[in-house]
Amino acid sequence: MDFHHSLDFRPASLKLFKGGYSFSKFKSDLIAGIIVGIVALPLAIAFAIASGVNPSVGLITAIIGGFIVSALGGNSVQIGGPTGAFIVIVYNIISLYGLSGLAIATFMAGGILVLMGVFKLGTVIKFIPYPIVVGFTAGIALTIFSTQMPDFFGLSIAEKLPADFIGKWGVYLRYFHTIDWATAGVGIVSLLLIIWTPKISKKLPGALVAIVVMTIFVWIMNSMGYLEGVETIGMRFKNLTTDIPHPHSIGINMESINLLLPSAFTIAVLGAIESLLSATVADGVTGGRTNSNTELIGQGLANITVPFFGGIPVTGAIARTMTNITNGGRTPVAGIIHAVVLLLVYLFLMPLINLVPMACLGAVLIVVAYNMSGWRTVVGIFRNPKSDISVLIVTFLLTVIFDLTIAIEMGLLLAVVLFLRRVMENTSVRVYGQQLDAADGDLSTHEVLDLAKGVGVYEIDGPFFFGVATKFDEVMRTSRMNETPKVRIIRMRKVPFIDATGVHNLEILITSAKDEGIVTVLSGVNPGVSETLHKAGIDKLIGSENICSHISEAVERANAIAEAK
Question: Minimal CB count within 10 Å: which of 19, 250, 412, 457?
Answer without folding.
Answer: 19
